[in-house]
Specification:
This protein is of the alpha/beta class. It has 10 helices and 12 strands. The protein folds into 2 domains: 132 residues, Rossmann fold (3-Layer(aba) Sandwich); 177 residues, Rossmann fold (3-Layer(aba) Sandwich), CATH 3.40.50.
């Protein structure tokens, strides 16, 4: 009998809260082989499931909760073989020195694709029409006609061409844009007209009318978009960040928006979150703030997550490699 456990929080927004009803519906869709037992618990009140669970589905905050035995997991959960994180990023869990030998960690990469593609379309069109500046002018009661070109033919640089970056690149191609892709391994991508290694970041930035950041946060990408990188961007360019806050130096970005070096930005990720009311970012001109909601589909996020979980469960039981397995060496 394989035991799969789902740990969630009662106070999570409905887009993230796993319920028995949702798991039951996903199980029916997957039609798993016999010999499966699944359970759902909230708020880590009861940890009895640790003794028998072979698979665990939870969010980062559940594993980092003081009530969860992260550092003694091998002893607390002797049968555990797999943990699935219900998000794409696992930065709060790094380094993965707590991960017991023989336990595979997977994430939700790919679940966000359709929604982040739609968000990218919105953000790029907003930047092209100078919507951030128009909104700033509206708050200030300032009438200033800003005439802008069509977005077709403009160049987008996607920094981090994984699942989310790829969705943004696909959306940009539909808008008639030229797409430059950038990632650690710059192999060709179906939605990129050209690929560049991270070592050519400034070259790529100089060519781009818009920059979309979707790369994971690692020691190598911390403040990748810093003051020097922003200085290399075209005057009047726009920036979108749907990756991780610390990949972009927000202090340097603020200066570029205030000075007019950049025409606008759309930020969806922050550190800390929620963004405090006292944060100066709320007052930065020509900036649109969305509270980390760019890629979480209200209707489909959890069903798609659970479909991925049950697909990986079948692979686990068949001894196959799991989808979205995290590499402990790279952290993604």
């Amino acid at each position: 009998m394989t035991h799969l456990h789902f740990a969630t929080r009662a106070d999570k927004p409905s887009v993230f809260r796993i319920t028995p009803e949702l798991v039951k519906a996903a199980s029916r869709r997957a039609k798993p082989a016999r010999g499966l037992r699944w359970t759902v618990s909230e708020d880590l009140v009861d940890l009895a499931w640790l003794k028998t669970a072979e698979g665990l589905v939870a969010s980062n905050d559940m594993l980092t909760d003081p009530a969860f035995p992260l550092q003694t997991l091998a002893e607390a959960a002797p049968k555990l073989r797999w943990i699935h994180i219900t998000g794409a990023g696992i930065e709060p869990l790094l380094p993965l020195d707590w991960l017991p030998p023989g336990v595979t960690l997977t994430n939700n990469s790919g679940v966000h694709v359709q929604k982040v593609g739609e968000f990218a379309t919105m953000a790029l069109l907003a930047l092209c029409t100078r919507l951030p500046q128009l909104m700033t002018n509206q708050r200030e009661g300032k009438w200033q006609q800003i005439f802008t070109p069509s977005i077709a033919g403009k160049t987008l640089l996607v920094v981090g061409l994984g699942d989310m970056g790829g969705a943004a690149a696909k959306s940009a191609k539909k808008l008639g844009m030229t797409v430059l892709g950038m990632r650690r391994n710059p192999k060709p991508h179906r939605y990129a007209d050209a690929m560049l290694p991270l070592s050519q970041l400034h070259r790529g930035l100089a060519k781009a009318d818009f920059v979309l950041v979707a790369t994971p946060l690692t020691p190598a990408t911390h403040h990748l978009i810093d003051a020097k990188a922003i200085a290399a961007m075209k005057p009047g360019a726009g920036l979108v960040n749907v990756g991780r806050a610390a990949v972009v130096d927000y202090a340097a970005l603020t200066q570029a928006l205030v000075s007019g070096k950049l025409s606008g930005a759309v930020l969806d990720v922050f550190d800390p979150e929620p963004l405090p009311a006292s944060s100066p970012l709320w007052q930065v001109p020509n900036l649109i703030i969305t509270p980390h909601c760019s890629s979480d589909d209200l209707d489909h996020y959890l069903p798609l997550t659970l479909d991925l979980v049950f697909a990986n469960l079948a692979r686990l039981r068949d001894g196959k490699k799991l989808k979205n397995a995290v590499d402990p060496a790279t952290g993604y």
